[in-house]
Amino acid sequence: EVRLVESGGGVVQPGGSLRLSCTTSGFGLDDYAIAWFRQAPGKEERKGVACISGSEGTTFYADGKKGRFTISSDPAKDTVYLQMDDLKPEDTAVYYCAAVRQSGNYYWLLIEYGYEYWGQGTRVTVSS
Predict the structure, then answer these.
(1) DSSP 101
(2) pLDDT per residue over 35-84, tens digit each?
(3) Please, what is the Cα angle at 124 between 80 and 40, to 5 degrees?
(4) What residues does 37 pair with on adjacent strands?
(5) Residue 89 in 3-state DSSP?
(6) C-alpha to C-alpha distance for 25 and 88, rounded to whole angstroms
(7) How far is 112 from 48, CA to CA, in rounded Å?
(8) What letter does residue 66 receive in the DSSP assignment?
């Protein structure tokens, strides 16, 4: 059974940092791309933030996300991370990790419907 479990969310002041974790199980990380999406309050759409290819560790970022957000993986722990720095109130959202097989999928486009497996989400609130 494929499982994705996010953790690390919380409340942080503007300018602060958080590191989110996505622990995976039930599949080999080498064959999959893992992405982080976020859903802002009151919005239906989950927007892509970044993704990483499991086989090569190649990273892709949505426009404007590279710099404050850094995606990385630890294959030994089957875990993908999202380091978030200089957080702003507009970063407030529920953050989800998602997975899809690399082969045959345009995972780097960070489109919600392009990902097959999803975690339950972790809430991030940026507020003073």
Answers:
(1) E
(2) 999 999 999 999 999 999 988 899 999 998 999 999 999 999 999 999 99
(3) 100
(4) 48, 96
(5) helix
(6) 32
(7) 7
(8) B
Could you tell me if 82 and 59 are in contact, meaning their C-beta atoms sit under 8 angstroms apart? no
Residue 49 structure tokens: 């933030």
SS3 82: strand
Q: Give me the residue label for tokens 């957080």.
A: 87
Indicate the SS3 state at residue 106.
Answer: coil
Exposure of 113 by Cβ count < 10 A (0-12 exposed, 13-18 middle, 19+ buried)?
Answer: exposed
Tokens 């404050």 belong to 68
- For residue 1, the cross-strand partners are none
The confidence score (pLDDT) of residue 17 equals 98
Residue 29 has pLDDT above 90, yes or no: no
Tokens found for residue 53: 């290819």
- Helix, coil or strand: residue 108: helix
Burial class (CB in 10 A: 0-12, 13-18, 19+), 71: buried
Residue pLDDT, tens place only, 68-124: 999 999 999 999 999 999 999 999 999 999 999 998 889 989 999 999 999 999 999
Query: Which pLDDT does position 104 carry in this prediction?
Result: 81
